[in-house]
Design a protein that fits this description.
Layout lengths: L5 E5 L5 E5 L15 E2 L2 H6 L8 E2 L25 H6 L5 E4 L10 H10 L5 E8 L5 E7 L5 H9 L4 E8 L8 H12 L6 E10 L4 E5 L4 E8 L2 E5 L9 H8 L18 E5 L3 E4 L6 E5 L4 E9 L1 H19 L12 H17 L11 E4 L7
Parallel strand pairs: 7-17
Antiparallel strand pairs: 1-2, 3-4, 5-14, 6-7, 6-8, 8-9, 9-16, 10-15, 11-14, 11-16, 12-13, 12-15
The chain binds fe (ii) ion.
Length: about 375
């Protein structure tokens, strides 16, 4: 989405999100959002800040247009005016109907684990220290059957990403196509493209380090319990130079992180049937809560995401190749962002940036029982 004016919304904790107009001027609790609720577990181990709470989902009035047009169950059964105004501007939890499709049974998972192409399958263990520093260990499936792979995942810290396991289709009848058609119908003006749906299967102790993604993300939870920590997409949480490294593919999406920032995070505890989404580039990290987890992570681009990426890409290029200190992203006007996007297209065509992302050596074989 290209918007004319960039404004700022303030959360209840004082954290500020980079958002596009229109934005709220009232705080979440003033706008009829579900009241934050802390669980016993959260009281014992969780964050202390009032914003860092777990949202208790309460269905709001359904407003799906043309709902009689299809006999299929809605994949987004509730989407209120508040959800519409919050989407892509602040973290947003919602209910989804993916489990009712029957496409995500354990049998289906096992089949996918066995047959999904190697080049689209990531087998990782993320080792994360108390200070947040992390190291990714990469492995292979080792010829295990799908059932045995599921057993291995359920045993520990494995994190499997079956990239593009679900896709859009030209006829628009696939689950992902239907989901995004509903998402666009609920959010007039939203136009998504480059949609990829990755199936994430992870063990009870699996964690994902602090990072930011270039595309938008809608994370729909299908099995188990996981905690998603979401941070504002600006200031100390998302330094320009760090995001430029991501745009230039000099690093994975991992970013510098300080555990003290947790006090200003939005915390979403996901259970099956619920999803969460957040503003573009908002840093996040994930802790599994002692259970085997399955989620569908849908990545998508919009023009707003494309302009963000293009701006960071151009700023990173200017900083490295031309010795220029670019204007910070947040101080760049909408017109300036369009110009930087145009420049990024030219820089890519000229090939003046070589991707320097680390190539990970395979360190373990799940078939040999090495799971960390
Ligand atoms: Fe992510």
């Amino acid at each position: 989405m290209v918007r004319a004016t960039e404004l700022i919304a303030t959360t209840t904790c004082g954290a500020v999100w980079d958002v596009a107009a229109p934005v709220f001027t009232a705080r979440p609790k003033d706008r009829g959002l579900p009241s934050p609720r802390r669980t016993h577990a959260d009281k014992a181990t969780g964050p202390k800040n009032s914003f860092s709470t777990i949202r208790e989902y309460q269905p709001r009035q359904r407003s799906m247009p043309n709902e009689s047009a299809s006999m299929l169950p809605a994949l987004i059964p509730d989407w209120s005016d508040v959800d519409r105004a919050t989407f892509l501007k602040e973290p947003l939890m919602f209910r989804h109907g993916l489990l009712e499709t029957g496409a995500f049974s354990e049998e289906a998972m096992a089949r996918l684990l066995e047959t999904h192409p190697d080049h689209l399958t990531d087998v990782n263990i993320n080792e994360i220290a108390d200070d947040g520093t992390s190291r990714v260990r990469t492995g292979t499936r080792g010829g295990l059957s799908g059932d045995k792979m599921l057993d291995a995942i359920k045993a520990g810290r494995l994190w499997i990403n079956l990239r593009e396991a679900f896709t859009t289709d030209r006829g628009g009848s696939s689950i992902v196509s239907r989901f995004f058609a509903e998402l666009e119908a609920h959010n007039p003006g939203l136009k998504t493209f480059h949609v990829y749906a990755n199936l994430l299967l992870s063990g009870p102790q699996a964690r994902v380090p602090y990072h930011a993604d270039t595309p938008g993300v809608v994370l729909m939870h299908l099995a188990g319990r996981k905690r998603v920590w979401l941070y504002p997409n600006r200031d100390k949480f998302l330094a320009d130079e760090a995001m430029e490294k991501v745009a230039l593919k000099e690093t994975t999406e991992d970013l510098p992180y300080d555990p003290a920032w947790d006090a200003e995070a939005f915390v979403a505890d996901l259970t099956p049937g619920f999803g969460v989404t957040w503003p573009f580039n908002a840093p996040h990290r994930v802790d599994n809560l002692g259970t085997f987890n399955v989620s569908l992570s849908c990545e998508f681009m919009t023009w707003e995401a494309r302009l963000r990426h293009g701006t960071y890409y151009t700023n990173g290029t200017l900083r490295r190749r031309f010795g220029v200190t670019p204007k910070p992203y947040l101080h760049t006007s909408p017109i300036g962002r369009v110009a930087r996007f145009g420049a990024s297209v030219a820089f890519k065509k000229l090939g003046i940036n070589k991707a320097r992302q680390a190539v990970y050596e395979t360190e373990f074989d799940v078939g040999k029982g090495v799971t960390g």
